[in-house]
Design goal:
The chain has 16 helices and 17 strands. It has 444 residues and is α/β, with parallel strands linked by helices. The strands form five sheets. Strands 10-9-8-7-6-3-12-11 form an eight-stranded parallel beta sheet. Strand 14, helix 12 (344-357) and strand 15 form a beta-alpha-beta unit. Helix 14 crosses helix 15. The chain starts with a helix and ends with a helix. The chain binds iron/sulfur cluster. Iron/sulfur cluster is lined by residues 12-13, 15-20, 22, 25, 28, 42, 44.
Length: 444
């Protein structure tokens, strides 16, 4: 955990000599706690205090980067147990396991299926981030061949999973520039894998059965000069995994226990599809930095991606769409005009129902700071005055030839005042978006 200003002050010389540019040691300590100044500005700090302060300034969970460029994955560096305490910073990466014992034609098919696992949801593109090539065959040539196939998908990052360090070295010749994650499947071979990670400056995932082993092996890797480490704990079942992952997070954040201060990779791999889905979503929630799945069916992958998107959404910043006019279908000057808030989920729900009505329409999103209809109304961000101003400024008057607007049923109370101040005829739409198609088909 980060030290407070007072904790830092206790470690300073307390002479108030001002050589750091601050009037007092306390002022310097406060600035240091807020990361506004660096420790080396104080020339009188003891070596012991320096060591304590430097280690406290490290993030409790190491940031690990897999891949390069704009599609790289960054995991770790989280600071809270629960999202509502602040937010989670680095969304869990979602990956698909690709076994290298598949036939060549099946490899191609599976890889192109993985490449298609991208979806648009509430104005954002969500998709799978990496492929974990697993050396299931035990053969070097098959492992390398599978990696070559994955290299045809430039957007996807790579993890390499093997028990054999020679196969790992061969596979790296093909994909090293993509900065893959090396997964050492065999605890007994960890020294060889650490050597490869060090030589190639790559992140490594350490596989082990217990947290004690994990703590011992991360220290070993660190002492060998590898700092980007991922924990791959093989508990016996999902409950065991959740328990271990929670313990790791607590130890890192609450006890500042450096040996477990690394992100976690989790494999959701039971045979039953529904259990696999439950595991994947549970691991995203608590507290995996990478979640690997086997299933490439879009109907399976989509809910996993949605869970990740929702959990990693900043709770203090609702997803918003731009406040403006949206045309749905080929609308014209006679088309209906609906007004709603700019909360993304509200807009996309309304837009989906308008689309399914097959009645070309305009939707105007009022700037409600991303709040939903009732919340915005209660917070006075979606009032008659605000809607009237939006109608005026949006330019809709130049687009349609009528002056009729449809407001959400939940704010029917605004209709009288809105008519009065805007001059528009107000229709009260349905309370639930599901009523929109029927409403629009009968709108005049
Ligand atoms: Fe205190 Fe060090 Fe600043 Fe002097 S230089 S005031 S000892 S913090």
């Amino acid at each position: 955990m980060a030290l407070s200003g007072l904790d830092i002050y206790k470690l300073l010389p307390k002479t108030n000599c001002k050589e750091c540019g601050f009037a007092t040691c306390l002022a310097f300590a406060m600035a240091l706690a807020q990361k506004k100044v660096s420790l080396d500005k104080c020339p009188h700090i003891t070596a012991q205090a320096k060591e304590a302060l430097e280690s406290a300034s490290q993030p409790p969970i190491k940031l690990v980067t897999i891949g390069t460029g704009e599609n790289r994955i960054e995991i770790g560096n989280e600071t809270v147990m629960y999202r509502h305490e602040q937010k989670f910073f680095h969304p869990a990466a979602i990956g698909v396991v690709l076994e290298d014992d598949l036939a060549e034609e099946d490899l191609d098919g599976t890889i192109s299926e993985i490449g298609r696992l991208k979806f648009d949801r509430v104005g954002q593109t969500i998709g799978v981030n990496l492929v974990c090539v697993k050396n299931t065959s035990g053969y070097q040539n098959k492992f390398v061949s599978a990696v070559k196939h994955v290299m045809t998908m430039p957007d996807l990052n790579i993890a390499l999973s093997s028990r054999d360090s020679i196969s790992m070295n061969e596979a790296l010749k093909v994909c090293k520039e993509k900065r893959p994650l090396l997964i050492c499947e065999d605890q007994a071979k960890i020294a060889d894998f650490i050597k490869i990670a060090k030589e190639n400056n790559l992140p490594i995932a350490i596989t082990c059965a217990t947290l004690e082993d994990a703590a011992m092996l991360t220290e070993k890797a660190k002492q060998s000069g590898v700092s980007e480490i991922v924990l791959n704990i093989k508990s016996k079942d999902m409950a065991g995994h959740i328990q271990d992952f929670t313990f790791i997070r607590r130890m890192a954040l609450k006890k500042n226990f450096r040996a477990l201060g690394y992100p976690i990779i989790a494999f959701a791999d039971p045979a039953e599809e529904d259990i696999e889905l439950a595991e994947a979503v549970s691991y995203i929630s608590k507290y995996a930095g990478i979640v690997m799945i086997n299933n490439t069916v879009p109907e399976f992958v989509f809910p996993v991606l949605v869970a990740r998107q929702d959990i990693y959404q900043d709770p203090q910043k609702p997803v918003q769409v731009e406040p403006k006019i949206y045309e749905i279908g080929k609308a014209n000057k006679h088309s209906p005009v609906l007004i709603t808030t700019n909360f993304s989920i509200t807009y996309f729900t309304v837009a989906g129902e308008v689309e399914s009505s097959k009645v070309p329409s305009y939707i105007i999103c009022c700037d409600s700071e991303g709040m939903s209809v009732l919340t915005a109304w209660a917070a006075e961000k979606f009032t008659a005055e605000k809607i009237s101003e939006t109608l005026e400024k949006s330019g809709i008057k130049d687009i349609v030839g009528h002056r009729k607007v449809i407001i959400p049923g939940y704010v029917s109370v605004l209709s009288g005042k809105l008519e009065e101040i805007s001059g528009w005829k107000v229709s009260v739409g349905p309370r639930e978006a599901s009523g929109i198609p029927n409403f629009l088909r009968n709108w005049k």
